[in-house]
Predict the structure of NUDIX hydrolase.
Amino acid sequence: MSAMDPTALPPGFADQLADFRTRAADPVTPKVAASTILLRQGSAGVEVFLMRRRTQMAFAGGMVVFPGGGVDPRDTTDVVAWAGPSPEVWAERLGLGVDEARAVVCAAVRETFEESGVLLAGPDDGSVVPATSGPEWAEARRALEAREIAFSELLRERGLVLRTDLLRGWTCWITPEFEPRRYRTFFFVTASPEGQEAAGVSTESDAAAWMAVDDALAAAGETVMVLPPQYCTFLELAQYGTVAQVLAAADRPIPEPVMPGLEPDGSALTLPEHYVRLAAGEH
């Protein structure tokens, strides 16, 4: 178990807090985002796919994260072939309006493909594309990331159906109020499809690897630099021995969104008791 304290202010947070208090500004409205926790079964238990953001990135530079990013307006407006729970069902599970839920689910699949090359889509509602390596797929990832094409266009040109049934909602985290860049991020879990290889180095990340959840916990705060949402997710995933158990546990509406608060003296973050107990080794 890692000795990382999830309530400690991450690097740079103290300066942001001081600036926020000096300006006495209203909090920035969070942008809606999606992040996908790719899972696979390893010899040491559940493994998770992690990426390290380039240090020059304005948000979470140098931090280890799951694939993810903001909603593209076209995720809301464009029509895609859809398999799995309807947007109405996703709206109930995520606590969103139907259009916003559709956009968040599309963003989760699109960002996962852009950042890892894993594509949760297939020719029909019972299959996924067998492989996403090679120059054609690399160019598709680049064009999506550059917003030269819409995700719906990519799926339509290849005759693919969005496999939303492979996703499960996990949690929602909201960036603290004093941050200058804020996100309302919906985290999903999914089993990485057989045959597809995750490869995460991109314009936003400079390293990527699969890591056993227990190893990620042990390295957190030392060789793996993470923010509270990622660390708390490791704590939760460590309660399960198999990917199937994680997916079964996620088959429900997501819990209330988590927004870390502050101790009155501004010395540390506050988190729900659930995470404090897990960090202390209490189940």
Summary: The longest helix spans residues 98-116.
